[in-house]
Amino acid sequence: MNELDIKQLEDRVDDLIKAVDRLQEENKSLRQNQSSLEDERSQLMEKTELARSRVEAMISRLKAMENE
After folding, report:
1. In whole angstroms, what is the distance from residue 51 CA to residue 68 CA?
2. CA-CA distance, 42 to 49, in Å (whole number)?
3. Predicted pLDDT at 46
4. Which string of DSSP letters, residue by residue, matches 22-44?
5. CB-CB neighbours of 42 under 10 Å
6. ∠47-51-54 over CA atoms, to 5°?
7. pTM for the complete prediction?
């Protein structure tokens, strides 16, 4: 291996290190986004369930009033 080959190899290794660093940061960001989205989904599911329960209770009261 001559010096040119070694320099090219060093440059390639440097490029790969930078790519790994960038991908690790991107992966971290994506995991944080996923966690946030999962939290938001959970909150929305709770709100949906609460709304469904309230609507069902209103329907039951309306039916009871209708039958009186």
Report:
1. 26
2. 11
3. 98
4. HHHHHHHHHHHHHHHHHHHHHHH
5. 10
6. 140
7. 0.69
